[in-house]
Amino acid sequence: MNRKQAGIILTLLALIVCAGILAARVNGQVDDGTGSLSSSLSFNKDSKDTTTTTTDYFYDSRNEREQTSSQALQNLKSIMEDKNTSKEQKDKATQEFQNLTMAMNYETRIELSIKSKGFEDALCLIEGNKARVIVKSKEPLTEKQSIQIQDSVTSVAKIKDILIEVK
Description:
Keywords: Signal
InterPro entries: SpoIIIAH, SpoIIIAH_sf
Pfam family, one: SpoIIIAH
Number of strands: 3
Protein name: Stage III sporulation protein AH
Organism: Clostridium polyendosporum
């Protein structure tokens, strides 16, 4: 590696660090996706206190949902690309693929909308015509908060059947 390549690498590294610092200032604390910012970690595996924090719940549930959805999308894509699949099955798989993709998009948008209303964290699960929203809160939701969540779901996904839970 010559001096020019080393200079380029150091410049890129400096830009990455600056972007991280800027993101931290703009967005507040930076969460690396592990849920370790607001949860306490216990490194003692022999401890009898193995309760999971709500941050772990939201992270784990979101991760599980994404894995399940990506597996379903892969399966549908393989059906759509298979040459031995009938046209009816391909059309049905294409429709399911579109529905699942839209549901994933809606879930993300609803979660962001709810978080922007002042909630610490939220998880949205859409199944057909029903939405299940799980909100992180230490206290029970007020009627105003419930209406805000329902409005978010209705405005984004046009779903009226909404179940709201507090964790």
